[in-house]
Amino acid sequence: MLRAHEIKDVPTTSKNPQANAVCERMHQTVGNIPRTHLRTSPPQDVSRATEMIDEALALAMYAMQNKVDTTLGSSPGNLVFARDIFLNTPLVADWHQITKKREQVINQNLIRENNKEIRYDYDVGQQVLKK
Q1: Are residues 51 and 93 in the same domain?
Q2: What is the count of structural domains for the chain?
Q3: What is the 3-state secondary structure (H, E, C) of the chain?
Q4: Which residues 6+ apart lie within 8 Å of 102 measured at CB?
Q5: Cα separation of 22 and 102, whole Å?
Q6: Does the pLDDT at position 100 exceed 50?
Q7: What is the pTM of this model?
């Protein structure tokens, strides 16, 4: 079974934009929760604002750990702790099956994106504009 400290981070570079999408989604979640709190009940002083931000970050962390991922078939919190977070029941994860399913989803997404590309064959001696 894979432990939390064994999970490798996905490098986020310009060569790996899919990993950037994951980070952007997490940032969006972290930003939406405080924004919602601020609109419903603006803080009256600095101590209340600090308390509100701490609460919002805790909620965002909780939301990200417990959101069921469609490719994993479970939430990250469930997989890391090998327990259902809400029902406190054991969870046995088939990591081989999860990996296969995740690879299938990635391959389907790549095929879909590649089908959107416009194919063009260049002729010898043809001018090409370069950025």
Answers
A1: no
A2: 2
A3: CCCHHHCCCCCCCCCCHHHHHHHHHHHHHHHHHHHHHHHHCCCCCHHHHHHHHHHHHHHHHHHHHHCCECCCCECHHHHHHCECCCCCCECCCCHHHHHHHHHHHHHHHHHHHHHCCCCCCCCCCCCCCCC
A4: 71, 72
A5: 14
A6: yes
A7: 0.51
Q: Are residues 57 and 22 in the same domain?
A: yes
Residue bearing the bigger pLDDT, 65 or 32: 32
94 lies in a domain? yes
pLDDT band at 1 (very low <50, low <70, confident <90, very high): very low
75, 69 in Cβ contact below 8 A?
yes
Closest to 71 measured CA to CA, from 32, 91, 33, 99: 99
Please check whether residues 63 and 76 belong to one and the same domain: no
Is residue 8's pLDDT more than 60? no
Mean per-residue pLDDT of the chain: 79
pLDDT of residue 96: 86
Beta bridge partners of 83: 90
